[in-house]
Amino acid sequence: MRAADANSSVKSRGIAALFILTVLVLAVLPDLLSTYYLGLVIEILIFALFAMSLDLLIGYTGMASLGHAAYFGVAAYAVGLLAIKLHWSVWSALPAALIIVAAVATLFGLLALRTRGSYFLMITLALSQVAWGIAFGWRSLTGGDDGLPNLPRPELAAHWSLAGDRPFYFFILLLEGAGVLLLTRLATSPFGFALRGIRESETRMQALGYDVWRYKFAAFIVAAVFAGLAGALYAYYNRFVSPDYLGVFRSAEVLLMVILGGAGTLIGPAIGAAVIVLLENLVSAYTERWLIVIGTIYILVALFAPNGIIGFIRDFRARRAKS
Amino acid sequence: MTFWLIQALNGISYGMLLFLLASGLSLIFGVMKILNLTHGSFYLLGGYFGLVVLQETGSFILAVLGASLAIALIGIVIERFFLRRFHLQQLPQVLVTFGFLFIFSDIATVIWGANPQTMPRPELFAGSLQFAGFYYPTYRLFIIGFGLCVAAFLWWLQDGTRVGAMLRASVDNEEIARALGINVSLLFTLVFGLGAFLAALGGVMGGPILGVYPGADFEVLLLGFVVVIIGGLGSLKGALFGGLVVGLLDNFGKVFFPELALFTIFAPMALILAIRPAGLFGRE
User: Fold this and answer.
1) What interface predicted TM-score (ipTM) does this complex get?
2) Which of B29, B95, B273 has the CB atom closest to A123's CB atom?
3) How far is CA B247 from CA A3, B92, B184, in A?
C-alpha cells in the first residue's frame, strides 16, 4: 500500500515536472522557431483542443459523433461574421460565438440524443451537413464557397493589437492552455467519472440513480463548446472562414486524430492531432493527393493501431513488464 | 396541374434512384450491423465505370451490368479483407469505410477530373412520351418501372427464397443461425456485394439524368442516410418509402426554396426522429 502511494506520488511529481517542462518549452518557442514553424505549432495547439473535445464524447462517454466539425465551424463563422460585419472586438465576439455554439449544440443534441449507435453516427453527420449546407448555400450572409476573407487579428484594447506572430501565439497559448486544463479537470471530476460509467454500462448507471440522458446531454454541449473555442481561434489564426471548416472531411479528420492518438486518454488525441497536422504539411509539400494518403492512414490505423499510439505504448510496456 | 404532375414524376424517379442506393445501405446494416460510409463511392464509381463501358461498347445494358458487377466485386474484396475482422466493432468499421470513401473520391478525381460528365440516355428511352397533353421523358418513366422491379425482386429474395430465410435467420439471431449450419460469413460477403451492386446500379441508372460528378459520393451518402433514418435501418419497406419521400421533398424543395433545399429534407427527418427514433419501419 505504502509502496503504491510512493509510486503514485513519484508518478504525479513526474507529471508535474513534465507539465512545467512543456510550459517552459512552449514559452520559449517563438524565440526558436521561424514564422512558418510557429504557425504549425499554433495549428497543432488548436487541433489538439478540438480532438480532446471530441474525446470527451467518444473516449469518455462512448458516443461516436461524425459531425463534430459543425461546432468548430459554427463558432468560426460566428466570430467571423461578428468581427467582419459588426466590428465586434474579440472580447465580445469570442464569448458570443461560444454561446451561439452552445445554443446550436442544444438543438442538435436534443435531436441526436434521441438515438444511439449507428443512428447517432448518421444523425450527427446529417446535422453537420445541414450546417455545411447553410454556410455553402446562404451566399449573401456567408459568402458561399468563397468564405469570409479578411478577418482581422484580435485587438485586446485600443492600439494593443495581436497582429504580430509573437503576441498572437501567446494569446492562443493562453486560451488553449485554459481550455485544456478545464477539459482535463472535467474529465477527472465526478462528472467525468459518471461519463465513463455511462460508456461502460448505461443501464447500470441508471440503476445507480444517475440521470443518464442529462449527463450525455451535458457532455454533448460541453464538447461542442470546446470544439467551438478551437474553431474560433482557428478563424482568428487563418483570418479566413470557409464551408470546409464544418465539412464532413474535418469531422472525419478529428475522429482520426482521436483514434490515432488513443481514445479516452485526452493526451492521446492531442498527440494524434500533432501527428496529423505535421504529416499533412509534410505530405502536401510533395503531392496534392492528400485524400489518398489520409484515407490509407484511416485504414492502417484501424488494422494495426486500433487503440492508438497511447494504447500501443501501454501494450509495449505491459509486455516488457511481463518478460 | 401539368406542373405538379411533372414535378411529382421527377421526384418519384429520383426517389427510385435513392431507393436503389438506400436498399443496399439498409440491407448491409440490417444483416451485418455495418454503417457503410463507402456506399456513396459505390454509387459514384458505378457511374464512372458505366460511362467507360458505354463509351467502349455503346451498349447501355452492358454498362449497367458490367459496372454494377465490377463494383460488387470491389465491395466483396473490401468486406473479405478489411471489414470481416471488425465484426460488430463500430469505430474500426467507421475508420475503414471512411478511408475507402476518401481514397475512391481522390482516385476518381485523378482519373476523371473535376468536371461533371454527362451520360447519354439509352436509345430505346431517348424520346418523350406524350399523354394528357404534355410530354415526359420516357427514361425517367423507365427508372420508375425499373426501381419497382428491383423492389419486387428484393422482396421475393427476402420473403420467398431459401437465401432470404437464411438472411432473416441471421438478422434475428446470428449465433443460432451459425449453429443451425447456415454459412453466415458467406452470407455476409454476398450481402455486402449485393449492397454495392445496388448502389452502383443507382449510379449508372442516374447518370443520364443527373450526370456523374465529383462530390456526388458525399451527396448521395447523405441522402441515403436521410432515407434510412426516415424509413428505418434494415427495412426494405422503409428504404422504398423513405426513398420516395426524400425524392419528392428534394425535388419540390429545390423548386420552391432553392436556397434552403436541404431544410425541406431535414426538417421532416428531425420530426420523424422526434416521434419515432428508429424510423417509420425500423425496429429498435
Assistant:
1) 0.91
2) B273
3) 67, 32, 34
- Distances in Å between the Cα of A77 and the Cα atoms of A86, A114, A142 are 13, 27, 8
Nearest CA in chain B to A58: B91
The domain containing residue A209 runs over which residues? 17-247
A122 in contact with B, Cβ within 8 Å: yes
Return the domain boundaries, chain B: 2-275
Q: Is A246 on the interface with B (CB under 8 A)?
A: no
CA A215 from chain centre, in angstroms, equals: 20
Based on the structure, what is the number of domains in chain A? 1
- Residue B240 near residue B38, CB atoms below 8 Å: no
Q: Is there a contact between B233 and B279 (Cβ–Cβ < 8 Å)?
A: yes
Decide if A308 is inside a domain: no
Least CB–CB distance from A298: residue in B35, B98, B222: B98
In a domain, residue A322? The reply is no
Interface contacts A/B by beta carbons within 8 Å? 112
- Rounded to two decimals, what is the model's pTM? 0.91
Q: From the list A121, A130, A301, which residue is nearest B95 (CB)? A: A301
Residue B251 cell numbers, joined: 425535388
Answer whether residue A79 is part of any domain.
yes
Phi, psi of B89 (to 5 degrees): -105, 105
d(CA A94, CA A162): 15
Note the CATH number of domain B2-275. 1.10.3470
Q: Give one DSSP letter per residue of B140-163, joined into a string.
A: HHHHHHHHHHHHHHHHHHHHHSHH
How close B192 comes to chain A (CA, Å)?
17
- In-domain check, residue A230: yes
pLDDT tens track, chain A, 323 positions: 455 555 666 667 777 788 788 888 888 888 888 888 999 999 999 999 999 999 999 999 999 999 999 999 999 999 999 999 998 988 899 999 999 999 999 999 999 998 888 889 988 988 898 898 889 888 888 888 889 988 888 877 666 777 778 888 999 999 998 999 999 999 999 999 999 999 999 999 999 999 999 999 999 999 999 999 999 999 999 999 999 999 889 999 999 999 999 999 999 999 999 999 999 999 988 888 999 999 999 999 999 988 888 888 888 888 888 77
